[in-house]
Structures are given as C-alpha cells and as structure tokens.
User: Fold this.
Amino acid sequence: MKLLNKNWQQTIEIKENIINTVIIENQLYFRQITLELIEQLANKNNTFSLIKDGKTLDFAKNCTAIFDTFNLEINNKKIINVILTNLQKITQENYEETLKIKHTLNQYFDDLSYQSEYDLQFDDELDILNILKIANFKIDIDNENFLEKFLTYLKTLSHIANFKLIIILNSRIYFSEQELIEIYKFSINNKINILNIE
Assistant:
C-alpha cells in the first residue's frame, strides 16, 4: 500500500512490520498538512491518495488520523455499529435463546399495556438490533492507563472500524521513547499500519 501527497516528491510505502515517520520541521507546513488531513477525512480535499494493488482507495473510509490522544472517541458511531452488527450475528447463532428473550419481552409489554389506563398497542415483532441498542454496548477502557487506552484505540480502529492506515500526529509529545517502542511492537504484532507525522 502507498500513501501519496500531491506536493511530495516521494511516496510512502506502507508495509507490514514497518513503522514510517514523516518529520516536518516547518511549523507552518505541519499545520497545513494537518488541515489538509482534517479536510480530506471529511471528504473536502484530495491532497492525499491511498493506493493498494494499483487501485485508489476511498481515503476517508480506509484511513483515519489521531490528532488528539487525550480525546479518543473509542465508542464512536462507526465502531458501535460494527459491534452491534457483530452481536446481531451472535444472536442468530443463539436463535432459540433469542426467541425466548423476544417472547418474554412481548409478554412483559403485553402485561404493561393491559395494566395501563390507556388503550395501547405495541410492535410485537421486536427487532433484535433495537433490543441490542437498549443495552448501550461499549468498549470498556475505564480501568486502563493512558497507554493501554491508546493501544486499545489503535486495535479498535484497525480491527473493528477496519481502517487500513492510522496516521498519528505528534506522538513524541505524548509518549516516552519506551512507550513508543511498546506502541510500535503492539502495532506490528496486531498488523496495524501506522504512520507518524512529527
């Protein structure tokens, strides 16, 4: 896989087991690159291209960037939707148990409507996805330290949200050398493609 920028002379080869770092010494140019990334991830720019097997990939669908390590949105809408879809498949594998739960809920709703002073009706064809949404499933990172949360976030972005490339800006500001080594080992072991921009 390759990352191209219209204004760069070199392409960046994204390979398994290799951590790439782009160092931008000019602060104004660093800011420009950051703004271009933000715009491109919102589909408002096309400075960057991500190419795999000779085909240009949709940048915003296949790449993401971490601009702020203090505000990681690990339970964002895209990730939660993938988790709910996965759980929905599990409910299909546990078909009989799922039917029992739906039946129990229908009985409960029927009892509630009967006891109510209002003339009520309800949808007795319960959608399992809506039932799962009620549970408010989330990835639990409450008991993790700063580095562990970051590693969980990387894995979530790569393995659940299925991003092919994760760009990390200014990682050296937030992490020690030893922590960076841990991040790189973790990324390599979990086949997560990252690119540092410093």
